[in-house]
Amino acid sequence: MALDFIPARFDRHKAPAIDSLINLLRSDAATGENGVLYYGWPNYTDYEAVRHRVDLALLTPENGVVFIRVVATPNERNISEASESLSQVAAWAISQMIKSPLLRLPKRQLKVPITPIVFAPGYEGLSVDGVEVVQSEKSLLSLLSTLVFNALSDPEFDEARSILEGAKALVRANRRTINDPTRQTAAVALAKLEEEIASFDQKQRRVALTILGGPHRIRGLAGSGKTVILAMKAALAHLDDPEAQILVTYYTRSLRDQLTRLITRFHRHFGEGDPDWKRIHVHHSWGRKDLSGVYREACLRSDMAPLSLSAASASARQGQNALDFACRSLIETGRVKPFYDLVLIDEGQDFPDGFYELCFYITKGQRDEKQIVWAYDELQNVFDVKVRSPEDLFGTDSDGQPRISLKRSLPNSADTNDFVLSKCYRNQRSVLVLAHATGFGVYGEPVQMLEDREHWADVGYEVRSPRMKTGDEIDVVRPELNSPTSLKAPEGYPLVQAQQCLSMDEEVEYCATEILRFIEGGLQPEDIMAIAIDDRRAQKYLSMLAEALANNGVKSNNIIADRFSEPPFTIPERVTLTTVYRAKGNEAAVVAVLGCDVVPLDTRNGRNRLFTAFSRTKGWLRITGMGESFGPLKREIDTAQKLSPHMKFKMPDLQKIETIQRDLSERDSKIQRLQAAIERIKEENGLSDEDIELVLRGKKNNGRR
Fold first, then answer.
1. Beta strands across the sheet bearing 473-477
2. Which of the residues 383, 557, 632, 680 has an alpha carbon 20 to 30 A from that of 100?
3. What pLDDT shows up at residue 205?
């Protein structure tokens, strides 16, 4: 495709020379080829904690990597300092790319040329060894025209881009040890899957790197990478400004460890050492005496005593969320002051409006400049929350205007500030289709449904039916493109099994036996999660399962064993035992869901719990329930597996069920659908980005019209 542009800083309007260069390099006359142009990226921190910045970076198959530093007031000293800094970034890039066999030539040479350039308008001083110094836009274009090397292949270009953008930071820190591949077949399959999902895809990296200088939203299915994107944004913002106060907040308490681990990994990859946790605050939304929280800390900064959950619940009006009441009560005191430079909100679908309003008030800047980024799960509304617009979430300002409006705050130079991630990397395609089918109830009595074919497309499906009217036979399919990872389940380890049992003892015995089989197949206990979805008997289910595993020498981490403690969700050499609410935001290679017979299939809450539980697995899924009560759900599961990757059902009357509201502007929706269509055409026809570009330009392969 044409040159992609990623703004990783938002202050370029302060430097007209940079704006002019961006316009020049994005023009066909300057490049005219595939590639990507970054503003403010990459940045690199050396061993002495000095941050080396690049104003512009250009990556094309023909030119390789070009780093540009703009020196607006050039003199010999400024040129020397800029050249030294650029040389450091170039050395860092070489050290990263030389690790890739795909980009390495014999004698540790690189296939990718890396050229540092200092752009110094009007400078007529001495040249600098190892760095090109150009004095005008014309001389820059002339230099670029001479930087023509053996063009990178598509895989080589993608590899170079992924390294520049930090995809390698996600590779597993410790590779899985497999002593006997012939016996440990489950471990072999899982290791191959983990290699597939170790890196960001290009769209995820683009969202993570993009900085707009104002609010924006990230939406997608569970497992589409939203948490990882927020962690990368936090690490990069901290490296860019170590003095900035950054908040990362979440709903599910057990998510803290994962966020902290990801932020640390990205910080170490792009800089040196660990983050300063006095500047990056990973806080639960509420908090308590032994756990920092957004609401609690805001109260303390305002010299107010935080309300306890019980006190807020008692004072809230009927039907009002306790956190909503607590946050609104604090705001009404008028004592809340801005504190954070950047606020990142994970699991946004679970927060009440009052919490969003509190986040608005604790964020610095004017309303359209407040750097608030919230990630919202499509189709994962465990607490029966609808998708709400930014205007609903943040409320109305004193002038009657919405405090946050994505349309109003969208910079002129940006395509969108509402990002939709349609690819799901956590779940296997058949498991995700099963989770959606049961979550909607399409093979039973539907209790919720997407609005239209555009919303289906937003979450990664294609509608094959010509119409979507009440009573129409509907056929939707999830293309492999939007569920790209594939677990090659070995013989004896089917991907999904639903077991109808006669008693709770039989359920526990079945799940314990399956867990032991997976451990025998080479998986570690911490690769496995058991979820008791029966709220009333969750404690009993999990304690019985813990005992059954202990009798076979396997330890457990029972998350709900002590309600006064907050254990890490995952502990090495222990199987995680949890409820569906505590499992949210986490994942495992194997998930066993117990007690499914009690889930009310005629409610959104019940269906959403099933979807959340089933979608925790990145590999295998085991589902159990007791007696005839489990029969209807088991029949739905069997039908979903038989028809996967399709869902085929009769369109319900949307007036009679609760529709999941979409809230996506028509323009953004069209962009998302066009991008998905192009990707599908490329995959089906084996085309490259260059082939698509030629088609869009109206040219044949020989370059002539």
1. 462-463, 473-477, 646-650
2. 680
3. 87
Q: Is 176 exposed, middle or buried (0-12, 13-18, 19+ CB in 10 A)?
A: middle
pLDDT of 150 reads 81
Find residue 57's DSSP bridge partners: 38, 67
Mean pLDDT score across all residues of the chain: 87
Cα(60)–Cα(40) distance, integer angstroms: 17
SS3 359: helix
Structure tokens given for 658: 């609760």
Place of tokens 């929350």: 385
- Closest CA relative to residue 203, chosen from 8, 478, 421: 421
**Among candidates 122, 149, 133, 121, which has minimal Cα distance to 87?**
133
DSSP line for 392-458: HHH-B-TTSSBS--HHHH--TT-S-SEEEE---SSS-HHHHHHHHHHHHTTTS---EEESSHHHHHH
- Type of residue found at 631: G
Q: Which amino acid is at 588?
A: A
Average pLDDT of the residues in 26-54 = 78
Angle subtended at Cα 383 by Cα 378 and Cα 385, rounded to the nearest 5 degrees? 55
Give which of 116, 121, 111, 109 is closest to 143, Cα–Cα. Answer: 116
Smallest CA-to-CA distance from 133 within 119, 146, 147 is with 119
Distance CA 374, CA 387 (A): 13
Q: Which amino acid is at 575?
A: V
305, HSE (Cβ side, Cα atoms, 13 Å):
4
- 595 contacts 507 by C-beta, under 8 angstroms: yes
Residues 6+ away with beta carbon under 8 Å from 291: 253, 284, 566
pLDDT per residue over 133-163, tens digit each? 999 999 998 888 888 778 889 889 989 998 8
pLDDT digits (tens, 9 = 90+) for 517-568: 999 999 999 999 999 999 899 999 999 999 999 999 999 999 988 766 777 8
Burial 236-250, CB ≥16 within 10 A → b, else e: bbbbbeeeebbbbbb
Q: Name the nearest CA neighbour of 192 among 622, 591, 589.
A: 589
How far apart CA 223 and CA 239 sit, in angstroms, is 26
Question: Is the overall model pTM greater than 0.90, yes or no?
Answer: no
Place 581 in a pLDDT band, splitting at 50, 70 and 90. Answer: confident
- Beginning with the edge strand found earlier in the chain, give each strand of the sheet holding 216-220 in spatial order: 280-284, 246-250, 342-345, 372-377, 216-220, 418-421
Alpha carbons 609 and 628: distance in angstroms, whole number: 20
Residue 291 amino acid letter: L
Are 294 and 284 contacting, i.e. CB atoms less than 8 angstroms apart?
yes
Distance CA 35, CA 294 (A): 41
Q: Report the pLDDT value the prediction gives residue 704, as an integer from 0 to 100.
A: 38
